[in-house]
Design goal:
globular; two-stranded antiparallel sheet
């Protein structure tokens, strides 16, 4: 299967995603994921330390134009208005972070993270959608290790400004766990920071 064929199929699928309505879009996301994996035929796997999250790396190359088109097309779905499509979109972004981290990360960081942080606080996320979110953060901090130190405060600081009924502390904790498990060097500092909060609460 050549890149010309792959590019044509991806372009056609993105055209379907642009159409109004939800019908068939779940299947489109599934097809898109399969096609993206074809860009890298040799896959290497590693596991985050102390984590059960599998991080896969692809040896193939995905064209810049394809990355840009797909990332742009995911924007309407990064919302809790449709949890199933949100789950699919997060999975596609995670896959792009695996396939083309240097191409995908800058756009994710500048255009998506603010929305994803807000979604991480939503009590609406559970099951497959929550798993997709956790995998997104795992792939994000693997794509660029420096972002890991910024992810945790961006997840926790807004909790102090949000009503408890409007935020899922357990989901945020799970996101932090994934980041720390993928970067164990953050464990000591994270533990110390949360220990301060526990002491304040206890006193």
């Amino acid at each position: 299967v050549g890149d010309v064929w792959l590019n044509g199929c991806v372009e056609w699928l993105l055209g379907v995603l642009k159409k109004p309505g939800k019908t068939g879009k779940g299947e489109v996301f599934t097809c898109l994921e399969v096609l993206l994996k074809k860009y890298g035929m040799v896959t290497m796997f590693c596991v985050c330390p102390v984590s059960d999250i599998l991080i896969s790396r692809f040896s193939g190359s995905i064209p810049d134009s394809v990355v840009n088109s797909i990332v742009e097309q995911m924007k309407p779905y990064i919302s809790t208005s449709d949890i199933s499509l949100l789950s699919s979109a997060l999975s596609i972004l995670s896959l792009l972070l695996q396939l083309a981290p240097t191409k995908t990360y800058p756009v994710i960081e500048s255009e998506y993270l603010k929305s994803v942080y807000a979604i991480a606080h939503s009590p609406l996320l559970a099951g497959a959608a929550l798993d997709a979110l956790l995998n997104f953060f795992a792939q994000l901090v693997q794509a660029d290790s420096e972002i890991a130190t910024h992810v945790i405060p961006n997840l926790t600081i807004p909790l102090g400004k949000t009503a408890k009924a409007d935020a899922s502390y357990s989901n945020v904790a799970k996101c932090i766990r994934v980041v720390v498990e993928c970067h164990p060097a953050l464990a000591a500092g994270t533990t110390a920071e949360f220990s301060k909060a526990l002491r304040v609460g206890y006193n």
